[in-house]
Design a protein that fits this description.
The chain is built from eight helices and no strands.
């Protein structure tokens, strides 16, 4: 019946809802502890703000890979990344435009890093469902998607987050990323059999 299908659907969504609720709880605890202010105080003297987008991407990727969830990673790191990026940039004497660029870079790196980590994680629900739906071995599925995801992540870091963090226009970073990935595909890629 319709009610039974609804209940089955709710059961399948329950783990995701619990993870999100717990992540929001961690976010609230971090807010109550003023974790962002602590990070700004610790990083202001020792970290060039230009490195924040790349560092945030790496942190988000590791967190999502370890937990298997991009949503929880985003809900934990966004409230930390934004004030940290703004505070560290202002402490370094960046003007409003440069501070805004670092903040946008930090936000985008949380989103991209979380999705990258979730995509590569063997414990991610999307990875498990993809391997089940395609009927392939789970470990083989994870192993075959890693080279593609890692190559894009390296390109994003090298021609995207690092140069943009140090003042390159994001549009030029995107264009460089497309060119490098196209070149990588032409150099390494080959047609699939069949």
């Amino acid at each position: 019946t319709g009610l039974a299908a609804w209940i089955d659907g709710m059961k399948s969504m329950m783990p995701a809802m619990v993870i999100l609720i717990l992540a929001w709880g961690i976010g609230d605890v971090c807010s109550d502890l003023d974790t962002a202010d602590y990070l700004v105080a610790q990083l202001s003297d020792s970290l060039n703000p230009g490195w924040l987008p790349a560092l945030t991407f790496f942190l988000a990727a590791v967190t999502a890979f370890s937990t298997g969830t991009s949503w929880a990673t985003m809900s934990i790191l966004i409230p930390l990344a934004v004030p940290t990026a703004v505070g560290v940039s202002q402490a370094a004497g960046y003007d409003a435009g440069a501070t805004h660029g670092i903040m946008l870079g930090a936000v985008s790196s949380v989103l991209a890093g979380a999705l990258f980590g979730d995509h590569c994680s063997p414990i991610s629900d999307t990875t498990v469902m993809s391997s089940m739906a395609s009927g392939c071995d789970h470990v083989d599925h994870v192993r075959t998607q890693l080279p593609y995801a890692l190559s894009v992540a390296v390109v994003a870091l090298v021609v995207g987050y690092v140069p943009v963090g140090f003042g390159l226009s994001p549009w030029i970073g995107l264009l460089l990323g497309v060119v490098v990935l196209y070149g990588f595909l032409r150099l390494i890629g080959r047609r699939a059999d069949g």
